[in-house]
Specification:
This protein is mainly alpha-helical. It contains 4 helices and no strands. Helix content is 84%, strand content 0%. It is found in: Membrane.
Length: 125
């Protein structure tokens, strides 16, 4: 936004919109916390759709906005060896992140239950 040429009115509108979404989200979460059931089919579908859309946006940003400029540079375009090493590095990075996600998914429930038990013990006593 710093390099874009926006009028002062448009900048003020964007700042207001950005700064009002977090308090609105907090208020919405507090309001819905009494009626929210995390194991209901509707909640599971909504969480799955939101997770899928955020993963898709992350992939788009990584592949199109970040990696495309690197892979389309003249240094990489002129060297086939450098292209191969760049593709190998991207694949190893994606594989490493996948393994880390699998590990986190496997141990997340036990870490969460331990933290919940610990906080319950600390605040109750």
């Amino acid at each position: 936004m710093g390099s874009a040429d926006y009028a002062a009115k448009m900048k003020a509108i964007m700042v207001f919109s950005f700064s009002s979404t977090a308090p609105f989200g907090i208020a919405l979460g507090l309001g819905l916390s009494n009626v929210y059931s995390e194991n209901s089919p509707t909640a599971l579908i909504v969480v799955g759709l939101l997770n899928a859309s955020s993963a898709g946006l992350l992939n788009y940003m990584a592949l199109v906005d970040l990696l495309a400029s690197d892979f389309m540079g003249t240094k990489l375009q002129n060297s086939m060896t450098l292209q191969v090493w760049a593709f190998v590095a991207v694949l190893l990075g994606a594989g490493g992140m996948s393994l880390m996600a699998k590990w986190a998914y496997k141990y997340a429930s036990s870490v969460y239950s331990f933290a919940f038990s610990l906080s319950h013990f600390v605040f109750k006593h």
